[in-house]
Amino acid sequence: MFKQFLRCIAVFLISVVCLGTADAAQLTFGTMYEPSIDPHFLYLSHNAAYARHVFGGLTDRDESARIIPAIATSWKNLDTTNWEFKLRKGVKFHDGSNVTAEDFVFSVNRIPKVPNNPASYVMNVEMIADMTIKDPYTIIIRTKEPYPLLPNRLSDVAIVSKRLVQDATTADFTSGKVAIGTGPYKFVEYIPGDRYVIKRNEDYWGKKPEFEKVTFKIVSNNAARVAALLGGDVDMIDVVQPADVPTLEKRGFWVFKRPSSRVVFLTIDSSRDQSPYVTDNEGQPLRTNPLKDVRVRKAFSMAINRDAIVDRIMDGLAEKNSQLIPRGWYSYNPEIKVEKYDPERAKELLSSAGYPNGFGLTIHSPSDRYVNDQKIVQAVAQMLSRIGIKTKVETMPPGVYFGRLNKREFSFAMLGWENSMTGSSMMCLNAAFRTYDKDKGVGTWNSGGYSNPEFDSVMDQATSTFDGKKGEELLMKAMKILMDDQGVIPLHTQFTILGALKGINYTPRADEHFYAVYARPKK
Fold first, then answer.
1. Helix 453-464 and helix 468-484: axis angle, to 10°?
2. Do 237 and 270 reside in the same domain of the chain?
3. Do 195 and 74 fall within a single domain?
4. How many degrees, rounded to 5, is the angle at CA 8 between CA 6 and CA 13?
5. Do the Cβ atoms of 129 and 142 come closer than 8 Å?
6. From its phi and psi, is residue 278 left (phi > 0), alpha (psi between -120 and 50) or beta?
7. 33: domain CATH number?
8. Does residue 192 share a domain with residue 48?
9. Domain with 396 in it
10. Residue 9 within any structural domain of the chain
C-alpha cells in the first residue's frame, strides 16, 4: 500500500513538472495592437515590432537602439555614396530556401509599390539611388547623396522572398500564404480582432528564443487588458497605463518600465492661408489662418501645463520635454528649455496677433495609439480654452487617423515620434519638418506644412556628414531653428511600460517594441 502511494505521488510530481514545462514553453501576450502581417504595409512602430519576429533585415537594433548585425554580417563605405554589405551565408527562409542579395533588392523595390498604403516604409529606402548585386551574398548600395545613417534605416526594412512574394498581395500575407520570413518565429495563424500566433523557428540562424510558442491576444481596451493579466488569462501585457502600475505592483505582478525614445508633440498647420479646422467663434471658417503667426503658436505652447500632464495624466511616468528627442540622447540641445506655463502671457500674445477673443479650433488625435493620448488632448483643449480658444476634440482609430494626417487634413494634431531608428532627432526632423520634396524623399510626414529654407539647409548638411560631432551640432542647430519658429509643440517623452506574471523576466526596449526573444519564462 505504501509503495503504491509513493508511485501515485511520483506520477503526480511528474505531471506537475511536465505541466510546468509546457506552460513555460508558451507565452500569451495581451496587446493593444492589431498587427499588419505584411511587413511593408502601414509603417507604425508596433507593426515594425511584429515584423521583427517573423522577418529579418540586413541590420537590427538592440534594446538600447544600437545598430547590430543581422542578415548582414558587416558593412563599409566604399566612398561617400557607395556601401558594401556582406550577407550571412546559410540563412534560410522558413520554407527552407536560401536568402540571397536578390531577395533584399526585391524587398527594397517592393516597398514603394505596396498599394493603398496609408503609411509607407518608403522613408527607409528613398535615399537609395540603385543597388548592385556583386555576388549572391554581396550588395553594393549607392545613395542619392551621402547618407551616413543608411545601416540604421535598413533595420526596419524586412526581407521577403522574391520567389514567393513577387505576385503576392498584402492579403496573402494576412492569410499566412506568404508570411514566410527569416526571423526567430514562424507564422501560425492570424484571426483579426482576436489573436496572432507564432512558433519558434528551430532553424533560426541566431540565438533561439526561450518561448516555443507566442500568442498575441488582441485586447484593445486598456482596462480589459489589465483584467486579463490579473485574471491569469494572459502572461504579459503591453501599454500598461501609468495609473495601473501601483495596482499591479501591489498585487505581486512584475512591471517593466523605462523612458522610451518616443516624444509626443502637437503638429501645427503653419503654412496654409486657410486651415480646415480653424473657425471664428461662431464656427464659421476663417479667411486667414492664425496658426501661421508665430505669436499664436507661441501662445499655444505657453498655455499648456506640461507639469500637470506629466503628474496628473501620466502619473509621473513621463518626462516633459522641450524638443523632439529625449533628454540625454545624441543631438539633444540643452540650450532649448521647456516652455514655462504662462497663460496670462499667452493671452497677451494672442491679443497682439489680432485675436483678443480667440477663435475656434478642432484638435485631432488617434485613439489608443499613445499612452493616454485621448486624455492628453482633452486636457490640452481645456488649457487652450482658458486663453480664449474655443476647442473641440476629435479622435479616431490609428489606421484612419494616420492616413488623414498624411493627407494634411488637420490643423492641430497629435503625433508621437519614436527616435530609436537613428538614435537621434534626424529621422523626425527630416521626415516631419523638412519642406516636402518627393525627389529627395523628405517631408513625407510633414503634416503641418512647416517650411524654412535655413532649416532645410542645415538638415541637408546634417544628413550628409560622416563626422559624428559635426552631425550632432548641425542637428542641434536645426532643432533650435524649429523651436524658435515654434513649428511644433513638444509635450513629453513617453515611458514604455509592460506588466507580467511574477517570475517572467523581460528586457524593455527603448523603441517600445515588444520582442518575445527578450522574454524569459519562469524556471
1. 160
2. no
3. yes
4. 95
5. yes
6. beta
7. 3.40.190.10
8. yes
9. 261-494
10. no
CATH number at residue 396: 3.10.105.10
> Phi, psi at residue 367, to the nearest 5°?
-105, 120
In terms of Cα–Cα distance, which of 512, 508, 509 is closest to 255?
508
Q: Give yes or no: residues 222 and 288 share one domain.
A: no
Closest CA relative to residue 277, chosen from 374, 390, 388, 377: 390
Same domain, 115 and 207: yes
The verdict on 223 and 79 lying in the same domain is: yes
Q: What is the DSSP letter of 57?
A: -
Q: State the cell numbers at 348.
A: 497677451
195 shares its domain with 117 = yes
Contact present, 273 and 356 (Cβ < 8 Å): no
Determine, yes or no, domain membership for 17: no
Q: How far apart are CA 421 and CA 427, in angstroms?
A: 8
pTM score, two decimals?
0.81
| Contact assessment for residue 383 and residue 307, using Cβ atoms and an 8 Å cutoff | no
Answer whether 260's CB lies under 8 Å from 440's CB: no
The answer to whether position 221 is within a domain reads yes
Structural domains counted in the chain: 2
Q: Which residues contact 502 (CB under 8 A, 6 or more apart)?
A: 252, 253, 254
pLDDT per residue of the chain (523 residues) written in tens, 0 to 9: 434 433 443 333 333 333 333 355 999 999 999 999 999 999 988 999 999 999 999 999 999 889 999 999 999 999 999 999 999 999 999 999 999 999 999 999 999 999 999 889 998 999 999 999 999 999 999 999 899 999 999 999 999 999 999 999 999 999 999 999 999 999 999 999 999 999 999 999 999 999 999 999 999 999 999 999 999 999 999 999 999 999 999 999 999 999 999 999 999 999 999 999 999 999 999 999 999 999 999 999 999 999 999 999 999 999 999 999 999 999 999 999 999 999 999 999 999 999 999 999 999 999 989 999 999 999 999 999 999 999 999 999 998 999 999 999 999 999 999 999 888 999 999 999 999 998 888 899 999 999 999 999 999 999 999 999 999 999 999 999 999 999 999 999 999 999 999 999 999 999 999 999 999 987 6
C-alpha cell at 116: 493603398
51 belongs to a structural domain = yes
d(CA 60, CA 483): 32
Strand partners, 361: 278, 391
Query: Do 459 and 343 share a structural domain?
Result: yes
